[in-house]
Amino acid sequence: MSDLQFRVRAPLGLELGTGECLEITSWSLKEICFPDAPNVLPKKGILSIPFQGVDIRFPVEFAPGSEPGTLAFEGLNGRQRETLATFYRAILSGQMASTAEVITALDTPVDLVPMGETEAERDAGVEKQAPRSLRAALTVLLYAGLALAVFGVVGGQIWSRLTQIEVAQARVEAPIVAHRAPQAGYVDQLDVAVGDRVEAGDRLVRMSDPDHATRMEDIRADIEDQDRAVRRARERLRRHLETEDAARAPLIAAYEAAVAARRPEDFFAARSLEGVRAVWVALRRFDDGHWERVGDWHEERDVREDDLRQAKDDFRRLKRQLSAQKASGSAADVHALSSGTVTAIHVFRDQYAARGTLVVELEADADRLAVGWLDEHLSDAVYPGMSATLSINARGRKHRLPGRIVEVSAGAQEARPGQYGVRLAVLPEASSSDAVRALMRPDAPLRMTLDRTPAWALPRQRPAWIAALPAGAAPPAAGH
Prior knowledge:
Radius of gyration: 55 Å
Number of strands: 22
Distance between the termini: 80 Å
Largest sheet: 6 strands, antiparallel
Strand content: 25-35%
Helix content: 25-40%
């Protein structure tokens, strides 16, 4: 803009970071002409405008100008630019001029304007004021009230931080037991309803597998076939055993013939008895059940006995399968894992439920607890048995329940995955009463405050290993 290009000759002061003060005599709203034009030009400084004996100062930053030896203004805010523009336009229009290294306004008034308060104004102001003592008393009361309010709030917060611990994410936790389908099947019958009281082992839902009856029929048919196979094998073995005498008769006849062929004195003298001995040994081996050749009577008997034994084993295996299938028919039913009250039913009749499907939820016969989370840096400030106060809102009324911590455990926070903390479980007093159970609805939000003993009131105890040292012995040095 042309308004930014005209240079005026009026004194400006520039204080550099080194403490050196320079006088700028040629400048515009865009840039200044640096005196002497050194090799290294400054980047920032304090610009002062000497106006009628009063310096107007503000910090400025520079960038290289359009010509060598010039510095362009950079980053001027609105007030700085407007102040500089006021003097710039006034000098161009002749309303101001440079006189003895000072910018002077040509219409400067000659008479001084009184800045103090006149006597009439002072008397009028005093008449409207309250007495000095009353004003002093009101001022003291005002400041006392403000101090009481400020220090009361701040002091109360400090005292609360010293004597209490606020627990985050506090809620009521009921002992809910989830029951899931042990295997896939159809829901045949619901034996309970929401609100029913059940005992451990009671059947909650009756379920059936559509393929169960088919498998039972197939196994029964296999059992009948195997029973016939056992009877056939037993009959074949019986018929084969009936031929034992016929198979033994040739050996007896051979033995009798061998004995008849020898004279009595041969037996007394034990002469030429090899034939008799061989026939007698063959008869004894037959009676002892030894095989003489493949396919003889004993080999056939063993084969038939093995067939009967295998048929009986297959029959017993099928009977066990039938018993297992009968048991599996009732294994699909859902039974109560503990005593309690049914709180929710998630299936309906004739619904197909896959294995692991949530079927029924019940609240076990146990106390409802208030659980919350603390940051891990407060883990050494809590302990089981520590007193706590629970605040819960029920139907627009605030109720306070005293209680004590029954569980302190560390782990990942459920509401903040990836963050660890301290889980607290508080058991309220008279937790088994109907009034307390009515107030502590499952998953109801509440406020949990722990009563912390101040650090100066805690007893100081020496560590056990120091107390066990002999009298006069010094503790080991660090690192030992």
